[in-house]
């Protein structure tokens, strides 16, 4: 049976649209996790920590309190000193004690956690884009539907790994800053929640797409009688 005809007769374009919609939503959530959002929507993703330091006032007559901050996301790291902000697009963000005007006895920058493991978020986003595209085009290009069946379970595993990676890095940064000199107060974003929501969607979609594959008609071998007759005819020749 032609795969387009199979989707039209056995699956229905309504189910196809629903599955495509869930795949697109999963891709959007993965994209939110991967793109830099600390500067635009800091509460959406990553972890942000703030502290207050005392510096001599410009007139030299006293001390001024300045709020400083450090933020780490899946693809960037940011620092705030008052109203001044500095961001770097990197997987291995390391804060600068000079920019933050940290005291000499600071230990914020000592052994600051590396975020290289967050590269899995970008791999997951790329896989999700491939799965979404291959399924949406799959009814018209049979080989792409097969690619969807192969990639979707891999994407589920990578999404789970991404969510765990976000939790690990956020916990490491929070621990480092919570017990540092000076002490920081941290705020977590919702990116790791998004990652596990994506996993939930993808597990359901994996079973759904797998059921569709099981319903597809398989090519049947010719009957045994026809095969034996064919062999007898060839032997007589």
UniProtKB/TrEMBL annotation:
This is Uncharacterized protein. Keywords: Membrane, Transmembrane, Transmembrane helix. It comes from the Eukaryota. The lineage of its organism: Eukaryota, Fungi, Dikarya, Basidiomycota, Agaricomycotina. The chain crosses the membrane at residues 16-38, 140-168, 188-209.
């Amino acid at each position: 049976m032609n795969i387009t005809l199979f989707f039209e007769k056995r699956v229905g374009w309504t189910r196809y649209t629903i599955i495509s919609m869930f795949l697109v939503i999963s891709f959007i959530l993965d994209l939110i996790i991967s793109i830099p959002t600390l500067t635009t929507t800091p509460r959406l993703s990553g972890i942000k920590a703030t502290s207050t330091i005392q510096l001599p006032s410009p007139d030299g007559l006293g001390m001024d309190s300045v709020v400083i901050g450090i933020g780490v996301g899946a693809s960037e790291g940011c620092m705030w000193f008052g109203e001044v902000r500095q961001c770097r697009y990197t997987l291995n963000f390391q804060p600068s004690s000079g920019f933050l005007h940290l005291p000499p006895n600071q230990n914020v920058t000592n052994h600051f956690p590396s975020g290289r493991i967050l590269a899995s978020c970008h791999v997951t986003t790329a896989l999700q884009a491939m799965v979404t595209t291959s399924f949406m085009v799959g009814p018209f290009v049979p080989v792409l539907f097969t690619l969807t069946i192969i990639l979707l379970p891999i994407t589920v595993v990578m999404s789970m790994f991404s969510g765990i990676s976000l939790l690990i890095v956020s916990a490491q940064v929070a621990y480092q800053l919570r017990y540092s000199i000076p002490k920081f107060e941290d705020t977590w974003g919702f990116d790791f929640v998004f990652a596990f929501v994506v996993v939930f969607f993808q597990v359901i979609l994996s079973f759904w797409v797998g059921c569709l594959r099981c319903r597809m008609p398989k090519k049947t071998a010719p009957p045994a009688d026809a095969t034996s007759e064919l062999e007898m005819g060839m032997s007589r020749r």
